[in-house]
Amino acid sequence: MKITKLYYLLPLFLLVMMGTIDAKDVVDPNSQSSRRLNFVVSTKQKKFDAAPFSFQLQARIMRLFHKKELHLIIARSTEEAVNEIITILKKKNATIGNLWFDSHGHWQRRRSLFEVGEEEFNYQTIRDSVLTLHLQKLAAYCDTNTKVGIGSCYGGASYTVPAIENFPAQRMNGDSLMIGVSKLFNNATVYACESFVLTGPAIMNAGYALCGAPLRKKFKDPIYVPVWEKLGEWNCYSGKTGSFESRVSVSLDPDGSIYVKGKNYLALKRNKGKLPKKLSAFRKGNYNLAYLYQSI
Questions:
Q1: Which residues lie below 8 Å from residue 200, measured CB to CB, with a gap of 6+?
Q2: 232-287: per-residue pLDDT in tens?
Q3: Which residues are CB-neighbours of 193 under 8 A, at least 6 positions away?
Q4: Exposed, middle or buried by CB within 10 Å (0-12, 13-18, 19+), for 182?
């Protein structure tokens, strides 16, 4: 799942317009010769969900100041999302600069994934030409300068989840998902997280707003140790070179562009020093294993 910080409703949303991005934090900016637009794709919720609500609200605020670059797409399906994106691109005679999928991840499914509406895309389904029929249409508007963000928890996880009860050890295959997404979008550069993806105030103009750990008790169980050991770690796959860059920390700027921070989240002393103490306090039973069986 994508985690919402508990203070997401505090009246701090206006702060997202007040910050600036230090140039030293931006790594290898793309040279773009044609007009490029940035899109945030988020699922239209059937009932209130704090995480997408917070993200969508902040994206709406940012769009007030960046109408020329940023577009928020709230859709029930990939067909609906893609049709809206293509309509905008044709009208503006533009290509895709940044494409961010705001989504929950689902730890109980024991695989990396992102969703649009009720459609799940993992390392297997992303290669299915029938299931990706609508997403394929965006390839014509993407190239190696396009950046795609998988904004779900564990979306880029490359580790193996340990065996537990009737469930054998299983690799998350986030790296394979990233490669599939890149191929789908004409060799775009893809970013996805090994760990949790947080949502809080200033999500589109804060240094490490996407990084960190949730406070809820259920996440403080030994089953989550692989996730905590990689807090704030994102992977980057370049479709142009066919290579991975790991252990980077990703953020979004106010116009929806994806950029890489100069330092990894866990490289910061205040974060790395706290981790061993937190892990030592984990207890079996904090996570209800019934969730695993419900996902079958």
A1: 4, 5, 7, 8, 54, 206, 209
A2: 999 999 999 999 999 899 999 999 999 999 999 999 988 888 899 999 999 999 99
A3: 150, 152, 153, 154, 155, 156, 157, 210, 233, 234, 235, 250
A4: buried
